[in-house]
Design a protein that fits this description.
This protein is of the alpha+beta class. It has eight helices and seven strands, in the order βββββααααββαααα. It has helices at residues 79-82, 84-100, 108-115, 122-136, 180-187, 191-196, 201-219, 224-233, and strands spanning 2-15, 21-27, 31-37, 53-59, 65-73, 157-160, 163-166. Strand 4 (53-59) and strand 5 (65-73) form a beta hairpin. Bound molecules: zinc ion (ZN).
């Protein structure tokens, strides 16, 4: 056992009847963690989710459930708490993270992404962040080349069972996003295009529809937080 400190974000707190709780955490140094908040820890309502900060905890050797000591938010991110356009997106982002990453699976890019929400255009950084989750966890499909005939896909592709197809080869049941979705995805691996491209909330939803279709297919489970996201994002 070792007492450790790391930059971290708490993204979920599951409470129990006896007033103890389990916190789900992304940490910069140790990846995804689960932490036990004992009954004796009385200030659970004071623990903020979706805001970067510093986590102090006891890492257990024999179990994945570590012991929580404290979490101190970085006050330079305090707007994350008061800006629904950020917290709503981070809620979806971390729901996807939770699905795709294993306990203690590290990814330092995540920290860079979440610290950028305060300076970046929300729709753009959110899409890029979710794209990076898919790519870095090894789940991103190749959207440039048809999985069947190998031709380059410029504008229109279709997703079926984790693979991307050109218009000619796409199975009838495939999911076909709006034509500009491919252009937005291309910008994720092209800095100059990324800088120039404008993404509004409608564009964001079009790309997310494709990503969520893919995530639900590979995890074989509905991503309920996305339904809520779509309901709320235009009303905030
Ligand atoms: Zn093809």
């Amino acid at each position: 056992m070792e007492r450790l400190v790391s930059d971290a974000v708490i993204y979920k707190i599951t409470k129990y009847a006896d007033n103890s709780a389990i916190a789900s955490v992304y940490s910069y140094d140790y990846g995804k963690l689960k932490l036990f908040l004992p009954k004796a820890y009385s200030n659970k309502s004071g623990i903020h989710t979706f805001i970067p900060g510093e986590l102090d905890f006891l890492k257990k050797d024999t179990t994945n459930l570590n012991k929580f000591y404290s979490f101190r938010i970085d006050t330079s991110y305090v707007e994350y708490l008061s800006t629904p356009a950020i917290s709503l997106r981070l809620s979806l982002y971390f729901d996807i993270f939770d699905r795709l990453y294993d306990i203690e699976q590290q990814d330092n890019v995540i920290w860079t992404i979440i610290t950028k929400y305060k300076t970046a255009e929300y729709s753009k950084i959110n899409l890029f962040g979710i794209y990076a989750l898919l790519k870095n966890s090894g789940h991103m499909f190749n959207f440039n080349v048809c999985a069947e005939c190998g031709s380059i896909i410029q504008e229109q592709g279709s997703l079926y069972m984790g693979q991307y197809f050109c218009e000619k080869c796409a199975p009838e049941e495939a999911y076909t996003p709006k034509p500009y979705v491919n252009t937005i995805m291309r910008a994720f691996s092209n800095q100059e295009l990324y800088r120039k491209i404008k993404v509004n909330t409608y564009d964001e939803i079009s790309v997310l529809d494709l990503f969520v279709n893919h995530i639900e297919n590979i995890t074989e489970k509905e991503l309920k937080s996305y339904k809520l996201f779509k309901e709320l994002i235009f009303n905030i």
